[in-house]
């Protein structure tokens, strides 16, 4: 965050206004591919120039919601404007730092954001938009499976990708096919349904591992608990067993568990319209999770 006073400039009123303007300009730039408005605005105001790192952040963040060509354009734009001097190396680093440290929040709406940001960072390093010291200075250690450290996962992946991608002449194809939230929700639901029919624990684990979305497992938690509230007897027991299995195999971490449980709690009132005893069953399920040490220390 910026200080409210920078070299004699009072930014008290400017911060929210400039952030809103930067967001608007980033959206327009990604849509029009024309930088004229951005250059004109940031040359016109000494205050506005202080918010270039926020502009870079929003350019990257908004591109993640779009198609792969938007991500490619964002990378090329950052490279071009860093070369021209519009963006300093420091401003791009600040933008990347801000994105990395907000990955947990971003991952709620963009399931693969950690991997996507890792690819973008690796590309920016390879194209010399930022120097390799950005990753070296991060003092990386490989996170363990089930670790909540999404920031560490992202930076460690970027470090490895940097070497892998160095052999690619065209980096536009690095993003791969990203799953949409709707498609992930459908796959998670289908995997749970199939488990209830087959009772095959190993196959269920294989299917969830294939998703490679460790930071969207809150959807699994929400779905499995809601289904457990809606079902009875053996099926409810199976759903709790699946939750325990996913926890024990480190496919659900503490953060994802609590996000999922919070989402269930937020929807209990609506769920009670279809299941009158939803709140009572929900409490029983939470007690059961606690008895099974789901959510406890590893």
Question: Your description of this structure?
Answer:
There is one protein chain. This protein has helices spanning 14-32, 36-44, 46-49, 52-64, 68-84, 89-101, 103-109, 113-126, 133-136, 150-165, 181-198, 201-211, 218-230, 233-248, 254-266, 268-274, 278-291, and strands at residues 5-6, 9-10. The chain is mainly α. Strands 1-2 form a two-stranded antiparallel ribbon. Helix 13 (218-230) packs across helix 17 (278-291). The model is unreliable at 1-10 (pLDDT under 50).
What's this, in brief?
The chain has 298 residues and is mainly alpha-helical.
Rg calculated over all Cα atoms? 22 Å
Arithmetic mean pLDDT: 86
Write down the secondary-structure element order.
EEHHHHHHHHHHHHHHHHH
Number of helices: 17
Describe the global form. elongated
Termini Cα gap = 35 Å
Strand count: 2
What about the largest sheet? 2 strands, antiparallel
Q: Helical proportion?
A: 55-70%
Q: How do the strands of the widest beta sheet line up side by side?
A: 1-2
Fraction of residues in β-strands: under 5%
